Amino acid sequence: MSATPLRETTSLAEGQRPKSALQVVNPADMADWDAQVMAQPNYLFFHCAAWARVLEKTYDFKPAYLANLEQGVLRSMLPLMEVRSWLTGRRGVGLPFTDHSGPLCSDPGSFAELFWNAVERGKTLGWRSVECRGGRELLDGAPASLAFYGHILDLEGGEDRLLGRMKSSARGAIRKAEKSGLKVNVSRTPEAMREYYALQCKTRKKHGLPPQPFALFKNIQEQILARNLGFIVTASHQNRPIAAAVYFQLGDRAIYKFSASDEEYQALRGANLVMWEAIKCLAGKGAKTLHLGRTSGWNDGLRHFKLAWGAGEHRIEYVKYDLRTGRFVMDKDESSGWHNHIFRRMPVGFSRLLGSILYRHWA
Predict the structure, then answer these.
(1) pTM for the full model?
(2) How far is the CA of 131 from the CAs of 21, 173, 260, 281, 323, in angstroms?
């Protein structure tokens, strides 16, 4: 991990840091939180109250969202969770296990106000760092701690237009899956989530990573899917689930959050049929865009899969400030490394146990 000092000639200089009385809020405590979030031009699903509840219930993270509320009206907001870990320390993360959850604000001054208030609050609470997963472009002089590719698919215009924007490889994979006789189902039930999780464990083993605890997906089903804020699409071959994915939607914006498949049936292109069914379903439910999540720079296969659907590409940049040194720091993308070889050889049961222990500290 490397560090970069503050540039005192920029708007980040100590003497220029704005002061205000921002409020620390828990989205779950505000009945109209989601409506207020959706009134912001750059909102994302992960700003909603349901996602905050999932993180709090699963990992016992404490919501510490910084909000500028004027007579009850949300003007700007920085989503943060306090992570308390004996292994990795106490810190503010906005937000853990979230692809992109930048600040809700329109200009550098508003973000500076939010960010430096978070820093000062973190110092009083003994945080090691403050991490924002988005918004780096609003902090003059701050380097990206991590950077990923992001992809957004325009869902407007009907099926013919959606098919026309795809590369021929994606259209061909859909046709192959349909000819293979795969059955596809859209569901929000606990049973569908259990089927998904079984595939998730197989996929994580293939990638050399421990699966997230089942509690995460149970809470997603209860707090998100059961509230009609998302669904699971499952493709089955002869009544056997072979590919599935979890999608979230808030207002007219959706995100492709989790996906898994059985490698034995990869040739049937179940994952492509799942995506196509989700696209049609989301468009029918009023979604105008589908965010395809973050992609690591080294993962060319996943990047090309997302581009094949006709998605536009952009950069997702995180920023992290070390409160102990007063410096911005740059991290390493740890999704790929020596640990992958160990988890690929580890029995699924033991890997699940480690995942249930480690993810709370990893955040």
Answers:
(1) 0.93
(2) 21, 39, 28, 34, 11
